[in-house]
């Protein structure tokens, strides 16, 4: 009968005390966790601009729907209104998610914000790709509504930040 090579090998049991990679870690286990910075007393400042921006977005939605209707009929009016609504929902969602992450743990801010933007723009890309391929007559007005929503929302948000951060 033939012997295998494994019969010649003697396997020693694993001893964590002898593992050189774990020796240094055992000494660090007793250290206290670092202190986290205190949360602001009133975290509502992160979303204080949303009511005003929502009112402006609603006014823009009505204007875009009216212009679209007057220029190309009800289909274009609906497309322009949907375009503004897409931007309003998108910006509001980003603001709320970022404000939540900042109140829970400021270290989460960057990964949560990036994940939100990736998901948001992926969905928007799929919707727009489907819309471009369709024969819907309101797709041009939808695009103009998105452009108008982005320009107005960004401008009003920049104005709000400038107004709030201005030294008194």
From TrEMBL:
Record's keyword annotation contains Transmembrane: yes
Entry keyword set: Membrane, Transmembrane, Transmembrane helix
Membrane spanning residue stretches: 50-71, 77-101, 108-130, 142-161
Domain of life (superkingdom): Bacteria
Region (Disordered): 1-38
The protein's name: ATP synthase protein I
